[in-house]
Amino acid sequence: MRFVTVEPADRLDRDGEALLLYPDELLRLGPLAQALTALAVSPATLAELTAGVVELFGEPEGQDATALVRAAASDLVARGALREEEA
């Protein structure tokens, strides 16, 4: 399974956050979600997204980075900013 960013009509990245404009919604993304949508401009696996997030933010103390990225990516899929594709 790969994740890919759903291209917005417009995007503004600023101060580690992003605004994504879709036909029916404006999404405001915090730093983790902003990073995930930037990393998934080209299709990326969960492992690739996790590696990119860890490179940007470091390994989270006492938490599983893959689980955190999976949860954030799932939320972005539900919100329409990412979609899942078969590998």
From TrEMBL:
It comes from the Bacteria. This is PqqD family protein. It comes from Tessaracoccus defluvii.
